[in-house]
Structure formats: structure tokens, C-alpha cells
Amino acid sequence: MKKKVPAYKGTLRDHTIMCPYCISECSGIRIFGKRIKSIAFSTDVAIIKNINADAIIAVYPFTPQAAISQSIISISDVPVFVGVGGGLTGGKRSVRLALQAEHQGAYGVVVNAPIADEVITEIKRVVDIPVIATIASVHTDVRRKLEAGADILNVSGAAATASMVAEIRKEYPDVAIIATGGPTNESILETIEAGANAITYTPPSNGELFARTMKKYREINP
Fold this sequence. Notes:
Layout: E1 29-31, E2 34-36, E3 38-41, H1 45-48, E4 55-58, H2 66-75, E5 80-83, H3 91-104, E6 108-111, H4 117-126, E7 131-135, H5 142-148, E8 152-155, H6 161-171, E9 176-180, H7 185-194, E10 198-201, H8 206-220
Helix pairs in contact: 2-3, 3-4, 6-7
């Protein structure tokens, strides 16, 4: 029998961003006792504070900075996975950023696809939180990432994501996989069926949300 879940929305928070419900179909990944299925891809603190995701993945196209990760971790009500580089930033700097992120309270550190395997090994040597390795291409040597010490794979292959997840799952039936779900319920479910344990969701931007709100205001006060 399907259980009824009581809910309270309130008035001021009734427009909280809701992750696609279909994400609940995945198994989730349990980290330090918390089961995580939906992961919001955002560094916008206003959005992070007003979304119902189980966790936040805070990666961005700039050199990682401890001040940014601290701001996001301090404002978030849910676990945060912090980007520590691997592209422009790497080597000992990524290792130091990973250790600092753990001290700040991060639940995991995310390394970019180009990171050297030996840097993953060094990060794993100094932190006790999971190391999440990004897999962005079918040509990435997944085995080497796992042997280097990666605990979780973050598959981000655009339109090829679901097929990449399926290939990885075939070879590594027990590995934890986070994957981008795409823009529709159908693409999310396809990725889950391929073997993803958790799904990253990109919420609307602040500008998009404001545009919707302003449109409503204009309709109320033409």
C-alpha cells in the first residue's frame, strides 16, 4: 500500500525550487549515513538555500577558492560536494584545497576530468571524505581513476551520459555513480535505468526565476 506523506509548505517558501520527482527512482548513495539521490549543480547561495535537493555539487569554471566553498557550505542545509580542480588547478594545490574543504565541512571533493591519477591518490591519502572523479568522455580510463583512489564517479557526458553510465555499470556493477540527468523526465529516467545511483540537476538561473516573477508582477499590475 502506498504511504501518504504529510507535507507542509508554508507561505513564504511555497515557491521553493523542486527537483524532478522522478529522481526518487534511483537508489541513492549513502554517505556518512545520509542517503543522497538528487544533487543540485549550483554555486548561487540564494538558490542553494531554496531548493529541495539532497545535496549540492559546487564546481565552477574558475580557480577553486576556499572562501567560495566556505560560503556555500555555511549557507547550505544539505551536504556539499566541493570542486578542488584538476584542469587549470592541480597538483599540490588541489591536494591542499581538498584537505581544507574537509576541514570546512564538505561531504566530498570533486576533481575535474583532466586531473592526474597520482593527484587523486594523494588527495585520498590526506582526506577521509569521498573523492569524486569526473568522467567527461568515453575515452577516459575509468579503471585508472578507481585504482588511483576515486570513491565515486561523476559522469558528465552531455547527450552520451546514459550510454556512458551503462558501459561503466556493465564493467563495474558495484561502483557508485553520479550522473547528469538531462533536461527532461525521460532523459533522467534513461540515465537512472542505465545504472546511475544519483542524479545532478541544474536548476533555473537567478535571472530565469526573476523573469518569471516579474512577468507575474506585470500581470497583477498591468
